[in-house]
Structure formats: structure tokens, C-alpha cells
Amino acid sequence: MQIIQRRKIYYIISLIILVPSIISLMFQGLNLGIDFQGGTLLQVRVEAEETTSADVRAALHDLELGIEYNVQQSDNDFFIRTTELTQQDTEAIISGLDTALGGVELLETEMVGGIISSELARDAILALIIASVLMLLYITIRFELYFGIAAILAILHNVILVLGVFSIFQLEAGMPFIAAMLTVIGYSINDTIVVFDRIRENISMERREDTITMLNRSIMQTIVRSLNTVLTTSVVLFAVLLLGGVTLEIIAIAMLVGFIVGAYSSLFIATPLWHDLSNKFKTKRV
């Protein structure tokens, strides 16, 4: 396969799918979850010891109040985080849970302000930035600077596409989404490093072949591994998507899109980018 020779085609494909993502992010934005919006936190206690968070979520869903909510469990106590509630909404929730689950007691009601939510969003973005910087340093030390730059650009490509999917379809972006994004970044960098490592290995063999031939050969030597990895993980993620709850569904979608895009970028974007960068700045082979 003449991957490097046809790199402009892959650049155009990426540009075609990046533009709608960027436009949607600029004008529509993300559908931020209640973790980032502020709202009301209810702490309730259920007498029935066998009650699970799934039972509470099902009971809330049956109330059809038209509100977003997250549920966390600690023994028999449940923490229900929702958008801002009126007193009437709170009473309706407690009454409905008591009817559905039996013996429900409201322990505490707390308003979560926008300042706290803004700090949470800032910390989440900071985590993504720190992860990217550390990976750039790692690849620069292990390989060389332009490998690092190519890898970060490929990761940025993946992150924007996942964000774009969530923006276009207005899927909820809460803390589970941030966890999935960090996983996608880790997967992407690992997949890219596998290809870069093979390139470095082939360079050290000093065969009598030009750089483009060597890069194509390196990609072909790793393509089966990348495809097998994304196929096996996709099967598992499809199962989670079909059988998991709302929270797992968000994680599965983000990881599924991220893993597929990550495999594509590690093979068809990262290596061509390194080739163009190293040629432009006339970097010696590492």
C-alpha cells in the first residue's frame, strides 16, 4: 500500500470529518452533564438493603419528570445529582421513590453552584492538557521532537472528532465522558507508539531503501495488530453499549468512536505527519 504517497488523500478525509465537528463545537457546543452545570444534590436512604443504584434510576425514570440525574450509592444511602429542582420537584421525587422502593428517607438537600461546576470543568480540561504534555515529553525523550509533535497532532485529531460526535448528536458530556476521553488518549498514544517504534527499528536496520518505502513497510507491519485490537475492543464496547446503563452507554460510545478514529490516525495520519515535518525541517533519521 502506498500510504505515504497518498497521504494528502487521508489528510483531506480527516479535514472533511473535522470541519463539521469544529463547526458544531463552535456554534452548538457540548451538552454538558449536570456535573458541569450545577444543580441539586439529594441524599436519600432506602430501607430495603437489596436496593441498587439501578433500581433508583429506574424509579426516577418512571416518574417522567423530564430532568437529568446521576445516582451514586454508598451502602443504603443514595446520592442523586440533578439539575436545579423546585421544592415541588423534590417532594415528587421523594414521594415517587418511596412508592416504588418503599421506606425512603430524605437525609439532605444541597444546592451545587455554578462556581463548583466551573472548577470541575476546569480541572477536567487541565487533566487532558497535562496528559497531552506528558505524552509529548515522553515521546520526545524516547524518539525525537517531530515524532512527539506528530503524535500530539494525531491525538488532537482524535479528541476533536470524539467531541464533534458528542456535539453533533448532543450526547451528554459529564465526568464519565472525561474518563472515556482519557482512555481514548491513552489508547491513541499507545497505538501510535507501536508504529513509531517499528519505524525506529526499521531505520536502525539500515536497509538500502528510501524513507517512503521504509515508512510504508513499517505501517504494513503493524496494521494487522492495530485492526485486530480495534475489532476485539469494538465487540466488547458494542456489548456494553447494548446491555449497559445510561452511564456505560456514554462511555462505550466515546471509547468506540475514539478507538476507531485512533486506529485510523495512528496508521494514516501520525506517520505521514512525521514524514512531512521531518522533511520540512530536514531532521536526520533517528
Using the coordinates above, name the CATH class of the largest domain. Mainly Alpha
Structural class: alpha+beta
Mean pLDDT: 86
Distance between the termini: 24 Å
The CATH superfamily of the largest domain is known as: Multidrug efflux transporter AcrB transmembrane domain
CATH topology of the largest domain: Multidrug efflux transporter AcrB transmembrane fold
So, CATH architecture of the largest domain? Up-down Bundle
Count of spatially separate domains: 2
* Poorly predicted spans: none
Helix content: over 70%
**How do the helices and strands follow one another from N- to C-terminus?**
HEHEHEEHEHHEHHHH
Number of helices: 10
The main sheet comes to: 4 strands, antiparallel
Number of strands: 6
User: Which of globular, elongated, flat, extended, rod-shaped describes the shape?
Assistant: elongated
Description of the structure:
By secondary structure, this protein is of the alpha+beta class. The protein has 2 domains: 4-33 and 116-283, Multidrug efflux transporter AcrB transmembrane domain (Multidrug efflux transporter AcrB transmembrane fold), CATH 1.20.1640; 39-112, Alpha-Beta Plaits. Helix content is 70%, strand content 12%. The chain has helices spanning 7-27, 34-37, 53-63, 87-101, 114-142, 145-168, 175-204, 211-243, 246-268, 270-280, and strands spanning 31-32, 39-46, 69-74, 77-82, 104-112, 172-173. Strands 3-4-2-5 form a 4-stranded antiparallel sheet. The protein has a two-stranded parallel sheet with strand order 1-6. Strand 3 (69-74) and strand 4 (77-82) form a beta hairpin. Helix 6 crosses helix 10. The longest helix is centred in the last third of the chain and has 33 residues, at 211-243. The model has no long low-confidence stretch (mean pLDDT 86). Forms a complex with SecD. Part of the essential Sec protein translocation apparatus which comprises SecA, SecYEG and auxiliary proteins SecDF. Other proteins may also be involved. Residues 104-279 form the Protein export membrane protein SecD/SecF C-terminal domain. Its main location: membrane. It is a multi-pass membrane protein. Part of the Sec protein translocase complex. Interacts with the SecYEG preprotein conducting channel. SecDF uses the proton motive force (PMF) to complete protein translocation after the ATP-dependent function of SecA.
